[in-house]
Design a protein that fits this description.
The complex is a heterodimer of chains A (106) and B (268). With 106 residues, chain A is mainly alpha-helical. Chain A is 57% helix and 11% strand. The chains are: A mainly alpha (106), B mainly alpha (268).
Chain lengths: 106, 268
């Protein structure tokens, strides 16, 4: 009875599992954004910011690929910026590096 | 009394809006980079003054503006509409929109069709863009033949000659092997980034990985296993993220190298 009732919900279950596994990483990033990001003096010159990139990557690519993409992004942040497009927000210039540009990995 | 006089005199001096003035205005919008607005103005001119205009020329301008605005799906739809009244112009821009959507193989076939069936200037444009599509497909000898078949008198003639001459020399895009970049980062964190010409990222990766490995090892030596587990977990993230970054970065490097080579030839 139980197995047949849930048989058709496999994709939903998988999605729930992905969301569940993402929770610790998403929680950590949200705490960082709320508590630590406002008191930092040096900011990443890239758009979206590292934390926003990480949240988006985990949301779009799941709990396995998302954190890998986030780690890669943190290592790249502010380095070798000549390879990124430039955008201006307000009066400040940023380097544009969206999640889509790193996914798929090819 | 004054307003009555004005009402009588002003209409006599007001010049009626002519088709060519709308087209001139649209041309100016294109020069200013306002492609979407230009498309609307060309369309307006065609709608109100279908008989007064050199329609093929305006169709070309309209579709060029649409392509320059990078609205390729819109361009595809527009070119299919234009195809009903001017088959060659519509077919050329339909192929151009496919190219913009990175569907290089069908775009090449469609440009070839334009080259085979249409008169100038679409014929030479078709040959030129078939060559550009071949560049994207890395078919250098075919691209060279395409560029050589562009008429010298065509607006793209000189550029086609330049491209053909460039293709007479060996093409080396200095690609980086993504697998190798990943393996390099796995063997020595940062080496893969160095391989894809990102030296500062390489140094960051080396330092961060080194620091976390050292922290993990030191924690184990001090018997602080909780801290060691946390540091090892983070290190696992940096390490595997670095491998991912090496692979993704190499692909990005290759795309940039190809763009740098092909983009100078993408002339509308």
């Amino acid at each position: 009875m139980t197995s047949s009732a849930f048989a058709g919900d496999k994709s939903l279950d998988e999605r729930n599992l992905a969301s569940f596994l993402s929770l610790p990483a998403v929680g950590l990033i949200r705490v960082y954004k709320k508590v630590f990001a406002p008191i930092r003096t040096a900011n990443c010159p890239m758009v979206p910011s590292d934390s926003a990139f990480a949240l988006e990557a985990i949301e779009k690519r799941g709990p396995f690929w998302g954190p890998l993409m986030a780690s890669d992004r943190i290592l790249r942040c502010g380095n070798d910026v000549g390879q990124y497009g430039r955008v201006v927000f307000g009066r400040k210039m940023f380097y544009f590096d969206p999640v889509e540009a790193r996914w798929p990995p090819k | 009394m004054r307003s009555l006089l004005l009402a009588l005199v002003v209409p006599a001096y007001a010049e009626p809006l002519r088709a060519n003035r709308i087209v001139q205005f649209a041309d100016r919008l294109v020069q200013e980079g306002k492609f979407k607005e230009a498309v609307l103005e060309y369309d307006r001119a065609l709608f109100y003054f279908p008989e007064e205009l050199d329609r093929p020329a305006v169709y070309r301008k309209l579709l060029t503006a649409s392509v320059l605005g990078k609205d390729y799906l819109g361009s595809l739809e527009l070119s299919r509409k234009v195809q009903e009244s001017d088959r060659c112009i519509g077919a050329f821009f339909s192929a151009r929109a496919q190219y913009g959507l990175a569907e290089f193989e069908p775009a090449k076939a469609a440009f070839g069709d334009v080259y085979g069936r249409c008169p100038e200037p679409e014929r030479s444009d078709g040959a030129y863009w078939r060559g550009v599509a071949d560049l994207r497909l890395h078919r250098w000898p075919e691209a060279r033949l395409d560029f050589e078949s562009v008429a010298e008198s065509s607006p793209k003639g000189s550029q086609a000659r330049k491209a053909a001459a460039r293709l007479a020399l060996p093409v080396d895009l200095s690609y980086r092997d993504p697998k190798l970049a990943g393996i390099f980062n796995a063997v020595l964190p940062g080496a893969g980034y160095l391989y894809i010409d990102s030296p500062r990222t390489a140094l960051t990766a080396l330092l961060v990985n080194g620091l976390f490995i050292w922290g993990t090892v030191a924690s184990i030596h001090n018997g602080n296993h909780g801290a060691a587990a946390v540091l090892a977990l983070f290190e696992l993230g940096w390490y595997s993220g670095g491998i991912y970054g090496g692979v993704a970065g190499a692909h990005r490097f290759n795309r940039s190298a190809e763009d740098a080579w092909v983009k100078p030839f993408e002339i509308d």
